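Backbone-to-sequence.
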């Protein structure tokens, strides 16, 4: 491929990377409708979600998710904010998700209920993983992270969502 073609390809990929977060549910938007279940079989919807909260879309095979989860879990432990995790990988069965989450007891995995987790990811317009949504006390999106959410940025987003940090 000629040099100009490579530059065009890189520019196109960069543009796409910048555009994808703009396609997701936006700041201030209410959560899209969904009905999933927690490991105890209790239905979780935007109305029943404990708020403020964090919703993380992930996949069991995702190396960035694996690298990020210990930091997210520590923030969940320190703040007491519920972290709901939803695998957007259709091949991640209930058993796979629950086994994976044994290392992260503060996370609340949401599993197939009336909806399938990957369908919920589509409603949030999530195009990759991890994607993290911080939800305020009114059930509106206070922050969105496409890719890895850094600890400090996540804590700042929780402050914006009305969380009293320790």
């Amino acid at each position: 491929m000629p040099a100009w073609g490579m530059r065009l390809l890189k520019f196109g990929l960069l543009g796409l990377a910048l555009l994808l977060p703009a396609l997701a549910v936006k700041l201030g938007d209410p959560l899209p409708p969904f009905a999933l279940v927690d490991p105890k079989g209790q239905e979780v919807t935007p109305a029943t979600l404990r708020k403020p909260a964090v919703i993380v879309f992930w996949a069991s095979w995702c190396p960035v998710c694996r690298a990020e989860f210990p930091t997210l879990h520590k923030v969940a432990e320190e703040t007491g904010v519920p972290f709901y995790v939803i695998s957007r990988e259709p091949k991640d069965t209930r058993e796979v998700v629950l086994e994976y989450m044994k290392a992260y007891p503060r996370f609340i995995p949401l599993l197939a209920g009336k909806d399938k987790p990957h369908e919920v990811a589509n409603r949030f317009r999530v195009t990759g993983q991890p994607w993290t949504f911080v939800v305020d006390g009114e059930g509106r999106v206070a922050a969105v992270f496409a890719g890895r959410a850094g600890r400090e940025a996540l804590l700042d987003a929780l402050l914006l969502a009305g969380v009293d940090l320790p």
